[in-house]
From TrEMBL:
This is ABC1 atypical kinase-like domain-containing protein. InterPro entries: ABC1_dom (IPR004147), Kinase-like_dom_sf (IPR011009), Mito_struct-func_regulator (IPR051130). Transmembrane segments: none annotated. It comes from the Eukaryota. Residues 208-454 form the ABC1 atypical kinase-like domain. It comes from Rhodosorus marinus. Signal peptide: none annotated. Pfam families: ABC1 (PF03109).
Amino acid sequence: MGGLGGSGRPPRRRHLSFVGPSAFTVDAIVGDARRKAAVEELDERSRTRSIFSRVLYSLGLFGRVAAVMLAQVLLPSPWLHILRAGLVIGAAVPNPERGKFARTLPALVMLRSYILASSWVVKAHSRSVDFWTRVIPIYVGYKYTQVVAPLMNEARQARMWKKRHEWGAEAVYNLCVELRGFYLKDGQFIGSRADFIPEEWGEKLALLQDNVPPVKFEEIDKVLCSEAQVNSIYQVFKAIDKRPLASATIAQVHLGITRTAKSIVVKVQYDDQESLMELDLRNLRNLASFLQTHDMKFFDLLSVVSEFEAQIPLEFDFIEEASMMKTIGDNLRKVGICPAKVVIPEVEEDLVTRRVLGMDYIEGVRVDDTKTLNLWNVNREELVRSLGEAYGQMILVDGVFHADPHPGNLLVLPDSRVAMLDFGQCKHLDETLRLKLCAFYLSICSKDPNAIAQTFRELGIVLDIPVEASQLRSNYLISIYANGLFDTGPLPDGIDINPFANSSPLREVPISEFPAELFMVLRTMGLLRALCCTVGCEVALSEVFRPFALAGLRKADRHAKEGIVIPSASTRPVLLQKTIMKISEMLTDPDTI
């Protein structure tokens, strides 16, 4: 028993020397594996958080960029721009010490509060916010369709695009009607170009020509009394119809009877439109800059906006408009076009101020009222040719023309003559450009591709033609542009000037430079092309212009027999070789004019 240590129990075996170290080693290995797995899991979470953080940072960056863009639109003063934009952007900078929600909330609250405060304090800010909150969803909607539609079959693509165009047309129509101003004018122009836009847009925006909500007569009464410096409009009028004959972008037209019992129409400018128009143009410049950079690289949109910025202020001066009516009317009377083929209202001299314009009342129907034109048995081709003669004289001989021939500004009389209304948008051409246009239209008549290409380039239009394109291909593309943009005749089969059509030359060869001073000619010819489509006749106005182009050159130099040098803004004069030979031959023929 003593071997048992005297306790009666066997001695406790000490495993520490044998088992202990092995158990410690196993525990350590298991612990290391767990720690390694935990570290890997933390690394994975860290990587996920890093990716998520980068995404959040990017979104935050885009948000700050958007805030900067919005501030640029809303703030006219550079110093206020810096201060307020700094507040907005500073609130949007993430703070690592805050949670995600806490970091985001102040930025949203600050930005929203700034927008609301600006809207209450400055009406113009509210207008800009209204514009951008309407435009951005339209843009995003079309970009979404642009990405998703190609994944579908043709039938589903067609349905999707039709639905998108209907939605887009409704949104743009509402923008134009509710904001009015320059947006309404722009919408009217787009709506008149049925050959240039989706069918759904054409149908909806065409309503802008007629269905513009009028302002209350009380506003018209107030402006009339202020401009005429009277206490009551009945000191000027014996009677006036409170229902407008037409309501347009900057003015409203009413029928009245003067104190001498003469029936006239009076055009009255809306209040506060001039300052809003300037803001609208600034918003459109920002939009044009964005679209030209990202989506519409095929045309120089900024030159278009620049020309509008120069032209639009003239629309608010009715004294200038009255002067243009008299000047153009006198010019057309000298050559017998007015009133034999085209009628221009006489100005009511006693009722002309900067914001009020009185003129003769002319009774007729809109040029797109095809039902009445059929009833009156109007010859559509003769109608277009008469209008073409007027524009040939105005553009190529006189160098001053009515630049807004949309259907709302053209009335057809029962005897088939055309009355031209609204001379707010008129354009003066300098002598150099007028002569270049004369040579250009004669080159179109010659159907010589080389002459067309040469005179087209002399207008200052630059096409982004691939360097590898042959001379033949280059001249062909230029002739397509020349006819599509500046003439009204039919285009070759398979060619569409609509920039959104797959067969549009604009997709293959964008216009990289377009002179601003030429845009009103482009706009006018585009409206005349649309008019030809509306009344259903094909007339190449270049042929109608031919005698006027010759007269325009004779006006510049009646003794030019050996060749005509067209003045150029560049340092080199341009001798239009083949075209000039043809011109010289025609000049010697007394029957050409």
